[in-house]
Amino acid sequence: MTKQFPEGFLWGGATAANQFEGAWDVDGRGPATSDTSRSVSPEERKTMAGSEFTSPMTLEKVQFALSDTEGLYPKRWGSDFYHRYKEDIALMAEMGFKTFRLSIAWSRIFPKGDEQEPNEAGLAFYDRVFDELAKYGIEPLVTLSHYEFPLHLVTEYGGWKNRKVIDFFVHYAKTVFNRYKGKVRYWLTFNEINILGMTGYLSGGLLFEDEKLHLDEMYQAVHHQFVASSLATKAAHEIDPDNKVGMMLARMEAYPATCHPDDIMEAIHKDHENLFYADVQVRGKYPSYMKRFFKEHQIELKFEQGDEEVLRQYPVDFMSFSYYMTSIIRSPKSQKDGEATAGNLIFGEANPYLESSDWGWQIDPVGLRVTLNKLYDRYQVPLMVVENGLGALDVLEEDKAIHDAYRIDYLEKHIQQMYEAIEDGVELIGYTPWGCIDLVSASTSEMSKRYGFVYVDADDQGNGSFDRYRKDSFFWYKDVIASNGASIL
């Protein structure tokens, strides 16, 4: 009997408007938080210093970025999908994509974020994209908010810590649900919602004039996103019963450094810290362990009447997550002697049993199977791996070939572990590896860190033809999809 993935499995790839689309000031799009993301130096990249992921933003920094005529802001041009979407979708179709994960730029639909009437040019652009996908039978998987946020909502309202933003988001969500009814069935509300604690500005619009991240404001903003997500889920089901709405988590699988009970307990705490967001969005209520966390950190969240009922009545239909690596967790009580390594927005001890990428991200395919089993055991809802991949320094040869055997090796081993998880009983319904066509890095705003099956001829400064070239992994992934995984199983 041939080993292969379940019939109807959603093979595809993933991008985000703020890193891929470009055309940041075209056709009425308003400025967003991602437009202030400057390119950081190689020295800064080692610790992500200077990145909006780790440096709390102030109003002064925002205003400087908008007036800066000399700095580089690569997310403003991205990979120019806005003008090349037909070419890019044709490449996806050539690979055999069943689904394509993309995001809608909120400020392209509502330039300021708080208007009543949408920007028709922005709506029309996504109509064209969805129609082009439909031409090839590719199912859109659409994220409503992916590391960008209308700047007007930052400067005028203070971002997601202001409860008024819930209504603005729900109005935006209803607008696109109605507009794209019948064209889009799969939706995600907030990308990697748990990263708001690190990207308080990019995804939450939070400004900190003392340049410190305040936990009380961060968790209040998260609460408002929880409520907004539930209300959007309610609206999606009312507008089109065929709609399926999911949550998206940056999964941070952590192994205890030793079998010392303190290390085991520390790993449990890290899981709570990570899975809290999924517990609320999938189970529909705040988990009991957060009561202690809020008490110990003197955090008092402001709930309005009806919030708990909304969360309970309108949980998500499925769970999606990103997975890039695992980390090692050691209790502060035990001696720390491991080497630190940078990962998917986190730092932890290096695992001596694993290899690392060019950026120090440790490669752990079995960890994906571990994560899939843990998440399915906990939530019992369909799962999708909507980000996974290897950022690497690809080389465009003179004959325009790109030989990325390292990417093929990485993805093949992860896909094999996904199959094993399905055999374990996990209901995994889709896989969209990250940056299927090269795009600008979320954390460091560089093009050099490439993930795609398709090479984009552009450098970190935005120089180049932006022409597309198929990598070796392009043809490999085409075979994987055509055989429904059998070619590597």
From TrEMBL:
GO annotation, cellular component aspect: cytosol
Gene3D superfamilies to which the protein is assigned, alphabetical: Glycosidases
Pfam (any one): Glyco_hydro_1
Gene Ontology BP terms: carbohydrate catabolic process
UniProt keyword list: Glycosidase, Hydrolase
Family: Belongs to the glycosyl hydrolase 1 family.
Name the UniProt record assigns to this protein: 6-phospho-beta-glucosidase
